[in-house]
Amino acid sequence: MPELPEVETVMRGLAPSMEGAVIARAQVNRPDLRWPFPDRMADRLMGQRVDRLRRRSKYILVDLASGETLLIHLGMSGRMLVSGDPLGQFVHDHPTAEKHDHVVLDMDNGARITFNDPRRFGAMDLLDTATAEDSKLLSVLGPEPLGNQFSEQHLINAFENKKSPVKTALLDQGIIAGLGNIYVCETLYRAGISPKRKAGAIAQQKVAGLVPIIREVLQDAIAAGGSSLKDFRSAGGELGYFQHQFDVYDREGKPCKRKGCTGTVQRVVQSGRSSFYCPTCQR
């Protein structure tokens, strides 16, 4: 499932074609995805100017002049594709419609935004912009790891007396919004912390040191356009390249990359997810 860097990459790719433009036509081709679409979604979108795009955790939020916000979650296989962009950044011709093109937005500037999702685990909803952060999806989220509210003290407080493994704690969206399996593995490797360590047993100085590492990993991934393992594509259809920079994720049985370390990357399953780490240098 796309994590923060992938969603940020898609959001940035959509912004030039959507921000300031009007949705001239909205086509909704089925009643639902992961959950039902809101009532009259096509009618409520049509004719609305897009004020801005933003991201919250793994959600793309499209603020409309109507005072509503279109919430988008890509799910496991969802893709937001841009065609006909007048800025010349994407393919100019609109592609032939595909079976899994569930929502199509034609902008008044000539761009077309297509939400394609073969597995249908994605989602869209319309929220009141003024109270969107109070919705059941967004109100439970912790601070953004690249934002000012995510601090060393926040993480120290969140980890205090926590008996769950640090890997599980970092995946808790109520503690940090947007982190997923890939980037937690990479973060713990750079920090030299085993994913099996209990969060509450890690020294406060070490916990504080995770904050800049988390930001560094995410910024590196965003700069590389995210990670493409299966279905992920950017808004322009390109693959991300951060998977070529993985230090530990999906490298089971390969030598540790850390200079001077003679260890071998291992995989363990934690809460149904694979954790990749070097038992020699991650303690």
In total, the number of strands is 10
Low-confidence stretches: none
Give the overall silhouette: elongated
| Sheet with most strands | 4 strands, antiparallel
Instruction: Let me know the average pLDDT.
Output: 91
Strand order in the sheet with the most strands:
1-6-7-5
Query: How many helices in DSSP terms?
Result: 6
What portion of residues is helical? 10-25%
Percent of sequence in beta strands: 15-25%
Which structural class best describes the helix and strand composition? alpha+beta
The topology string of helices and strands comes to HEHEEEEEEEHHHHEE
Integer-rounded radius of gyration: 20 Å
Q: Roughly how many Å apart are the termini? A: 28 Å
